[in-house]
Amino acid sequence: MTNTRGKNHHIESPEEKQNRHKAMEAISVINSLKEEFKNPIDAMGYFYRLFEEVYCHQKSLHEDKLKVGTMCIQIPSEIIYAFDAVPIRLCNGFYTDDDIGSDLLPQKACPLVKATVGHFASGNFSDKPDFVYSPTTCDQKTKAGATIEGFGYEVIDVDFPRVKESEISREYFRRSIRDFTLDLAKKTGKKLTKKKLRETISKIGYAQSLYHRLCEYRKEKEIVINGNDMFLVTNAFFFDRIDSWTDAVETLLDECEKRRDENLTVAAKVSPRIVYTGSPPIFPNYKIPMLIEQSDAVIVADETCSSNRMFNDRVAVDEWFVNDMLDSMADKYLKACTCPIFTKNDDRIRRVIDLVNSYDADGVIYQAFAGCTVYELEQRSVLEAMEREGIPILYLESDYSPSQGGQLSTRVEAFVESLKMKKRKQG
Ligand code: SF4
Ligand code: SF4
Question: Which atom of ligand 2 lies closest to the CA of 340?
Fold first, then answer.
């Protein structure tokens, strides 16, 4: 097209506009992480570049591989890798996609679900999934699968129980995982071997052990890595090449060790130590974690499905036969999940209390996405439990919109200030 001055003028397509908005969202968070916190870590450069390449330049990381989309944490990555395919977790944190999803789902739906659906609607994937497995976890995720199918994707439901403790649930999910494995074998045209599965269990186990080693530094008095960087590291596990991820985390661990020796910290002595729980922070929606650390507190641990829950428990295998390994994985993925989708969820309360004690935290911040009924419902029991234990807790409801900032920051700052005063009094 030619404008009146005779110069070529490109008219942006809706897709280009969406990509530009997403790139702006991504870069603004990456720049904040790079520039706003004291003593930045060199080894985080890998993760900043990764997110920039994937979300600002749509760089594909798995061109030559079969890409298996997953809608939640209950699909065992070990099995996908054992078929020589790549898992891509599709939980999404972009406001641009949430906005697109708002035209397709009820306005009041969970922003994570709306953003995931919006992402499929726009189709702007750097690595487009070949098909998608959707565990029947919360109602909104369960129903989102049908909408996503409408955009031409194959979505396979994976039955997931809502009762955690019963033997029936355990059997049910074991069968579900066996069905999922058969389906994946059909789709890939490959046979699942004992050797391959054992190798991938150990690969994921190694990644988990690196995560746990990183967390050890967060238990120390002097904190060498902030919580927002940790969220970025764990969010990268959603889509990165696993070997590149483990190499980058090994480098990060070396630097953390050096920083500890040199007393190079990211937080002041008086900075309150926070355990973060609730709806998961997914890049670039770090609104609440950012507010916390910009208010001079530091997130020392979290209980969320975008971070701690992915790495917490290891697969415990008794017999190294394929079916035994599959059963062990089903058990692990069911038991380790502390999402409020379950009828009773005492594990979650126990875990939060345990994190507060082992990370010497001063308080808990609980975020529920507006529209997420289960996190909203479960806040009461968590708040009561914290009260019984004498642990200060702040409950916040938030969404992906950039407009809420002022009101939330006032509440976060007031909470952080009250914890600081308490800390000062205690000397
Ligand atoms: S919040 Fe629960 S249902 Fe949603 S992605 Fe996380 S584990 Fe799955
Ligand atoms: S935040 Fe709530 S509604 Fe959203 S995916 Fe998680 S459980 Fe489902």
Answer: 7
Question: CA-CA distances (angstroms) from residue 27 to 49, 204, 254, 284, 387?
Answer: 10, 29, 27, 9, 39
Summarised one tens digit per residue, pLDDT across range 151-189 is 999 999 999 999 998 999 999 999 999 999 999 999 999
How many structural domains is the chain composed of?
A: 1
Instruction: Report yes or no on 8 lying in a domain.
Output: no
- Residue 7 is classified by DSSP as -
What range does the domain containing 333 cover? 14-426
Q: Is residue 291 part of a domain?
A: yes
Q: 81: part of which helix (H) or strand (E)?
A: helix 77-82
Rounded to an integer, what distance in angstroms lies between the CA atom of residue 330 and that of residue 314? 12
Question: Predicted confidence band at 9 (pLDDT cuts at 50, 70, 90)?
Answer: confident
Among candidate residues 331, 260, 352, the one with its CA nearest the CA of residue 39: 260
Nearest ligand to the CA of 109 is 2
CB of 280 within 6 A of ligand 1: the answer is yes
Give pTM, 2 decimals.
0.95
The answer to whether the CB of 110 is under 6 A from ligand 2 is: yes
Regarding the beta carbon of 369 and ligand 2, being less than 6 Å apart is answered yes
Ligand 2 lined by 351 (C-beta under 6 Å): no
Has residue 3 been placed in a domain?
A: no
pLDDT tens digits for range 379-418: 999 999 999 999 999 999 999 998 866 889 999 999 999 9
Is the CB–ligand 2 distance for residue 92 below 6 Å?
no
Asked whether residue 2 is assigned to any structural domain, the reply reads: no
Taking the CA of residue 227 as centre, how many other CA atoms within 13 Å lie in the half-sphere pointing to its CB?
A: 36
* Top mutation candidate among 110, 116, 134 for ligand 2, by most atoms within 8 Å of CB: 110
